[in-house]
Amino acid sequence: MKPEHAGGAKVMDSFVLSLSMSAFTLSERRSGLLAAIVSYLFWGFMSVYWSLLAEADSWEVIAHRVLWSLVFLLLAMALRGKLNEVLETARLLWADRRRLMIMLSAAFFAALNWWINVIAVLTDHVVELGIGTFLTPLISVSLGVIFFGERLSLLKKGAIALAAVGVGIMIVGFGHFPWISLGVSLTWGIYGALKKKLMLEAWVSIILEAALMLPAALAYIGWLHAGGLGHFGTGGIGLTLALAGTGIMTSIPLICFTLAAMKLPMNVLGFCQYIAPVMTLLLGIFWFGEPFGGRELLPLIFIWSGIALFLFAELRPLPNGRDTL
To answer: Could you tell me which of 196, 186, 277, 228 has the C-alpha nearest to residue 60?
Structure first.
């Protein structure tokens, strides 16, 4: 082959390789986007699933969620050949009591967040739950400022202020403290802050959290059945399967979210997070038939305005890389 032909062949090979890499990247982004959509649709429709468990006590639902999610996730890790990673991380945590206490705290706030999600459905407060999940990203930002010394631009501070006004309107308009809205957002925000402190691999962290909750979960299930109050195996085949299915319903969106986080830019993943609160709010109105009028809409307008302002501040081009506005 002549030198010029060899050079042309190298150029062509490089061009084909570039196209292949671009196609691979596009394929990765598409699969990541699909995984993100699946995870947030699962979380958005979760309130419908919790309504299937209305006969069971709310903490019984949480106890079975802990048990069966641990079973499902351990099986998944075994299939991935990564059980040793779980055991090694557990050994390291046990030797570091400070990090162990952080993990225990994270497990506590995760369980509390799950309980609020369940009790909101069982007590007909799905709309209030939906409003709270819209608040979650801004609560997380506020906690970042308080606990991690993160700095906010004026626009982002304005976004937080708009959300705070929305919360104030809820307190006045609802006639009671909106503990479901604030509870679901605060517990998830604190949980995220604690996980940031730990910096553990996502799958391993979730398994260890469930393992820490397991003794209390098994004790509660045992206590219920000893008193004839348990529903697993005694409440009918449908309810029994639904209780066991909490493990799958918990694990699938977490697995999909982990995949999405590895394949998507954070700005795309950030936009996807609003799928779940939109779904929860719409289900509260149209599926569960809860009232939705000016009392509910007014605080949402302030919260949505805060979200829009925050996203604008996050995505706008920054002069000289500085966030000053």
So the answer is: 228
Q: b/e for 281-300, b at 16 or more Cβ within 10 A?
A: bebbbeeeebebeeebebbb
Concatenated DSSP letters for 132-174? HHHHHHHHHHHHHHHHH-----HHHHHHHHHHHHHHHHHHHHH
Q: How many domains does the chain have?
A: 1
Contact 122, 46 (CB under 8 A): no
Reported residue count of the chain is 325
Residue-wise pLDDT for 255-283, tens only, equals: 888 778 777 776 567 677 788 888 999 99
CB 54, CB 286: distance < 8 Å? no
| Spatial contact of 47 and 284, defined as CB atoms under 8 Å apart | yes
| 18 within domain boundaries | no
Tokens of 33: 């986007």
* In-domain check, residue 11: no
**Domain-embedded: residue 19:** no
In 3D, which of 119, 114, 113 has the Cα closest to residue 57?
119
The answer to whether 51 touches 121, Cβ cutoff 8 Å, is yes
CB 232 within 8 A of CB 95: no
- The three-class DSSP label of residue 55 is coil
| Gap between the Cα atoms of 192 and 175, Å rounded | 30
pTM of this structure: 0.79
Residue-number span of the structural domain to which 317 is assigned: 29-321
pLDDT digits over 91-150, tens only? 998 999 899 999 999 899 989 999 999 999 999 999 999 998 888 878 878 887 887 777
Question: Which one-letter DSSP state was computed for residue 235?
Answer: S
- Taking Cα atoms as reference points, which of 291, 288, 280, 292 lies closest to residue 46? 280
Give a yes or no: residue 261 inside a domain: yes
